[in-house]
Write a structure and sequence with these properties.
Number of helices: 2
GO molecular function, one term: phosphoribosyl-AMP cyclohydrolase activity
Pfam families: PRA-CH
CATH architecture: Roll
Strand content: 25-35%
Subunit structure: Homodimer.
Strand order of the largest sheet: 2-1-6-5
CATH superfamily: Phosphoribosyl-AMP cyclohydrolase
Main location: cytoplasm
Largest sheet: 4 strands, mixed
Protein name: Phosphoribosyl-AMP cyclohydrolase
CATH class: Alpha Beta
Shape: globular
Distance between the termini: 38 Å
Amino acid sequence: MNGTTEWLDDVVWNGNGLAPAVVQDATGGRVLMMAWMNRDSLAESLRTGFATFWSRSRGKLWRKGESSGHRQRIVDVRLDCDGDTLLLRVEQVGGIACHTGRESCFYRQLTDGAWQDADPVIRDPEDIYG
């Protein structure tokens, strides 16, 4: 990055100044999670090399892994054809992206008309967050 942030103007931010960010494992391709980013969180992510999002519930920047240690090192960032959705390809530190202790937040599978847990808990959230 050359120090300018003009590239942030190419992102189509919604009415709340946010864009959805899909987070994908750079090696295996699995979708790990989806979160929201604003200009500051995207700029911070590129500045530090680690994923930072905007927490709508807390109204502040959320540095992924700051309490769990399960940080996401950014491999690359892509913007979709409409310019309104980001894709972060990451190396997931510790192999856990979800606060439930699973590899991915997308662990529920629709089976016979009901959502079933399809992925195991890797580490008990109580052990992660206390």
